[in-house]
Amino acid sequence: MWLWLFAPFLIRNVIAANFDPTEFFKTRCEPKCVFEASNLNSTTIDKFPKNCATVCTDLAIDDKCDLTEEQLTATLQNMKHLVGSLIVISVKYTSVKFLAGLESVECGELDFLIVLNNKMLEVGMTSLNTINCSSIAIDNNKEMTKLNMPNLKYMYPSEVNKTEIKVRIDGLSKKFCVTTQEMYNLMGVPNINLDSLEGMHCEPPVPLTNGKVCNSSYTLIYPTEILDECTQYFGSLVINPANEKDVSKLKSVEAIFGPLFIEKTNLTSIDFLTNLKFISTLGYDTAAVQVINNPFLSNFSFPSLKKIKTNSHNGVNDGVIFINNSYTLSEDPSFCNFFWAFLGVDGWLYPEFDGKSCESIQVRYDQQPVKRSARSMGLEMMMIFVLSIFRWFGWAGAAPKNIEKYTKIYTDKGFHVACICPPLFHYKVPNGSSGDKMLPFIEKFEKSKGSAPVDPVIIHSFSMNGIRGIISLAKTTGNPKLMDNLEGIIFDRFACVSVCPDFLFCFSGPTRTFTHQNGKALMLSRPKVGYLSDEKRAKIHEKVNDARDFVISPISSIPSIRSKFSTYWYIHDKVQLPKRQLYFYSNGDSMVPIPPLEEFMETQKTRGCHVDSYNFGKSEHVGLCSKIGGP
Ligand SMILES: *[C@@H]1O[C@H](CO)[C@@H](O)[C@H](O)[C@H]1NC(C)=O
Ligand SMILES: *[C@@H]1O[C@H](CO)[C@@H](O)[C@H](O)[C@H]1NC(C)=O
Ligand SMILES: *[C@@H]1O[C@H](CO)[C@@H](O)[C@H](O)[C@H]1NC(C)=O
Ligand SMILES: *[C@@H]1O[C@H](CO)[C@@H](O)[C@H](O)[C@H]1NC(C)=O
Ligand SMILES: *[C@@H]1O[C@H](CO)[C@@H](O)[C@H](O)[C@H]1NC(C)=O
Ligand SMILES: *[C@@H]1O[C@H](CO)[C@@H](O)[C@H](O)[C@H]1NC(C)=O
Ligand SMILES: *[C@@H]1O[C@H](CO)[C@@H](O)[C@H](O)[C@H]1NC(C)=O
Ligand SMILES: *[C@@H]1O[C@H](CO)[C@@H](O)[C@H](O)[C@H]1NC(C)=O
Asked: May I ask which residue range the UniProt record assigns to the signal sequence (predicted)?
C-alpha cells in the first residue's frame, strides 16, 4: 500500500524507456542469481540465491516481511552487488545492517528507497560504496539519527541521458547528523543534488587518515585559530583583523564544515583557499559564505571549489553574501555568477552582492556595453555638465561659449555632451528648476533601460553651482535611486584643463563654503547696478549670508532639518550619488575648507561608493590655473 505514495519515484523510468527488466538482468546475472519474487519473506526466502555475489532483483523488504534480522543477515550476507533496485519500507528493524556486506547497487527501472521505517535508527550499510541510481531516498524514518554509510562515495545516474543524481535525506530524527566523512564523500560526487538533505554534522568529526581536522567555534564571533596543515575545519572559518596575517596557512584546507566568514580585513583578494573543495553548513542558520566590510577586497578565486551545501530549509538567503567590499565585486557579474553555479538555480537560494542578485548585476552590466572599454576612452558616451557660472577672478556668468573649451575635450573623444548652466547663484538650497532642464537627458537614459543598451552618463560638476545643479536634479525627479544608474560623477572645484591635461580637472567638491565666498558668488551672478559698486554688492550679500549662517548654524547640528538650509547637508543627507566618484582638491586651498570635504568623501565610502580622490597638496585654490590664464 505504501508503494503508492512513492509511485512517482517508482514509475518514472517507465516513461523514459522501453525498459526490459528480463533483458537487463540477463546481461548482468547468471540465471541462477536472479531472484524473481522481489518480496523477501518466509515463503520466498528459499528461492533467494544465497551464494551469488551479484544478485539481480528488485529487492523489496516491507511490513509484511516475517523474517528476523538474523535470518535476513544469513540470507543476504554473500550478496555484494545488487542489480535492480532496493526498497526497504515500513519495516520493524532498527537498521539495514543485514545488508552490511553489500558494496554496490545498480538500479534498473526502479530506485533506491529506505523510507517510512519508524523504528529504524540508522542505515548501517557500512560496505556500500557505489550506488548507480538516479534517485536515492532515505526519508521519513523518524527515529533515524545517523546514516552509518561511511564508504559511500561513488554514484552515477541510472536514467538514460540524465546526469543528475537526486538524493533525498529528510524527515528523520531532529538529532539526525551526517558525519564529516559521509558529507565529504557525498559532496565529492559529481552532479549530486543534495537540496533535500537536512540535518547537522556529527560531532566529533571523524579523524582523517591523510589530513588533519581542526576544530573551531560554531559562532561567527571569534577569529578562528589558524593552524598549520589543517585540511578540514570543523566549525566556522572566521577571518578578521585578528588573524588575517595568517591566511596563507589556509592553502591546505579542503573542506569547511561550517560557514566561511570574512570581515573587516584589509585583504585585497581571497586567493589563499586554493585547495578548498567543499563548504557545508548543515545545522547553521547563517549564510555559507559571508564576506563583509573588506573595503580593499576586489577579487577572489576558489580554483578547487566543487560544492557548497547550505542549510537550505529555513527560507532565508543562507547562500553567499558579499557586502561593503570593493565596488568591483558587485559591479562585475562574473563574481556573483561564480557562486551561482554552486548554489543552483532553485529560486530563492542565490548569491547576493551588495543586496543585488546576479541577474540584476548582469542586466546593469549588459546595459553598459561601452563602459568596459570606456576606461580606455575614445568611445561614445553621454555626458552632462552641470556648470558653474562664475569664477572668482574677473569673470562671471559663463555661457556655453565659455564652456566650449571643456566640452571640446569630451566631444573630441567621441562623447555626447550636454551643458546645463543655471542662471543664478542663490544662497538658498535650490529648487527643482535647473533639474527640470536636465531631466530630458536623464529620462532618455532611463527610458532605454531594460530594452536597448544605453550610453552611460557621467556628470561632471563644476564648482558650487555644479553641486546646486545636482541637488536641483535630485529634487526635480524625487527619485533617490536615479544617480545609482549614472556611471559616475566628477566633482570639479574649478576647471583648469589647460594646465593638467592628464588629469583634466583640478579642484573639487561638496564642502561648506565661507560667507564671503557666497557673497561674492551672489554678486558675480547678478547684473551690475549703477548705484552700487561690486564690492558693496558683494559685502551686502556677504552680510545676508552671515545673518543667515548665524541663524542656521545651530540648526545645522540637527540632522533631521539641516538639509533644508544648507546645500552641503542637502547633498550629504538627501542625495544618493553615483557609485563612482572622483574628487580633486588641495590642502593649500584657502577658499575651500578641507575637513568637511574629506568627511563627505568618507561618508560616501561607507555608503559603498567607490571614491577616488587626488589632493594637490600645497596648491592654492585655482592657483595653477590662474597662472596660466584659466578659461
Ligand atoms: C511473501 O510475499 C509473496 C509475494 O508478495 C506473497 O505472495 C506471500 O503471501 C508472502 N508470504 C508471507 C508469509 O507473507
Ligand atoms: C556505475 O556506473 C559507472 C559509470 O557508468 C560504472 O563505471 C560502474 O561500473 C558502475 N558500477 C556498478 C556497480 O554498476
Ligand atoms: C538519449 O539521447 C540520444 C541522443 O541524443 C537519443 O537518441 C535517445 O533517444 C535518448 N534516449 C532517451 C531514452 O531519451
Ligand atoms: C574537537 O572537538 C571535539 C569535541 O567537540 C573533540 O572531541 C575533538 O578531540 C577535538 N578535535 C581536535 C583535533 O581538537
Ligand atoms: C588595515 O589597514 C589599516 C589602515 O591602513 C591599519 O590601521 C590596520 O592596522 C590594518 N589592519 C591589519 C590587520 O593589518
Ligand atoms: C583575480 O584573481 C585571479 C586568480 O588569481 C586572476 O587570474 C585574475 O587576473 C584576477 N583578476 C583581477 C582583475 O585582478
Ligand atoms: C526656483 O528658484 C529660483 C531661484 O533660485 C527662482 O527664480 C524660481 O522662481 C524658483 N522656482 C520655483 C518654481 O519656485
Ligand atoms: C555597510 O556599510 C554601511 C555604511 O557604513 C553600514 O551602514 C552597513 O551596516 C554596512 N553593512 C554591513 C552588513 O555591515
From this structure: 1-16
Instruction: For residues 169 and 347, give the distance between their C-alpha atoms in angstroms, rounded to a whole number.
Output: 20
pLDDT in tens, 263-290: 999 999 999 999 999 999 999 988 999 9
Ligand 2 neighbour 132 (Cβ under 6 A): yes
- Which atom, in ligand 3's list, is nearest to the CA of 161? 1
What is the pLDDT confidence band of residue 376, given thresholds at 50, 70 and 90? very low
Taking the centre of ligand 1 as the mean of its atom positions, its distance from the CA of residue 254, in whole angstroms, is 50
Cell of 576: 544618493
What are the pLDDT digits (tens) for 286-305? 899 999 999 889 999 999 99
CA of 213 to the centre of ligand 4 (A): 9
Average pLDDT, the chain: 79
Ligand 7 proximity of 433 Cβ (cutoff 6 Å): yes
CATH of 3-175, one of 1.10.760.10, 3.80.20.20, 3.40.50.12280, 3.20.20.70: 3.80.20.20
43 lines ligand 1 (CB under 6 A): yes
Long-range contacts of 596-601 (CB under 8 A, 24+ apart): 596/511, 596/512, 596/568, 597/508, 597/509, 597/510, 597/511, 600/509, 600/510, 600/511, 600/568, 600/572, 601/509
Reading phi first (left if > 0) and then psi (alpha if -120 to 50, else beta), residue 617 is in left
Among the atoms of ligand 2, which is closest to the Cα of residue 105? 13
- pLDDT given at position 505: 32
Condensed to tens digits (0 to 9), the pLDDT of residues 121-131 reads 999 999 999 99
Q: Do 393 and 385 contact (CB within 8 A), yes or no?
A: no
Helix, strand and coil in the chain, % to nearest 5:
30, 20, 50
Does ligand 4 come within 6 angstroms of the Cβ of 215? yes
Question: CATH fold of 389-627, please?
Answer: Rossmann fold (3.40.50)
CATH of 213-377, one of 3.40.50.2000, 3.40.640.10, 3.80.20.20, 1.10.150.20: 3.80.20.20
Distance 239 CA to ligand 5 centre (A): 14
The finding on whether 430 has its CB within 6 A of some atom of ligand 7 is yes
pLDDT score for 398: 52
**What is the whole-number distance in angstroms between the Cα of residue 155 and the centre of ligand 7?**
74
213-377 matches 3-175 in CATH topology: yes
* 511-522 tens-digit pLDDT: 555 666 666 666
Predicted confidence (pLDDT) per residue in 379-392, tens digit: 344 555 554 443 33
Q: Backbone phi, then psi, for 483, in 5-degree steps?
A: -70, -20
Q: Is 44 in the pocket of ligand 1 (CB under 6 A)?
A: yes
Spans of all domains in the chain = 3-175, 213-377, 389-627
- Of all ligands present, the nearest one to the C-alpha of 471 is 7
Q: In sequence order, what are the residues at sequence separation of 6 or more whose Cβ sits closer than 8 angstroms to the Cβ of residue 514? A: 591, 593
Tens-digit pLDDT profile for residues 39-60: 999 999 999 999 999 999 999 9
Report whether 300 contacts 290 (CB < 8 A). Answer: no
* Closest ligand by atom to 44 CA: 1
The pTM score is: 0.65
Cα(296) to centroid(ligand 6), Å: 14
How close is the Cα of 44 to the center of ligand 1, in Å?
A: 7
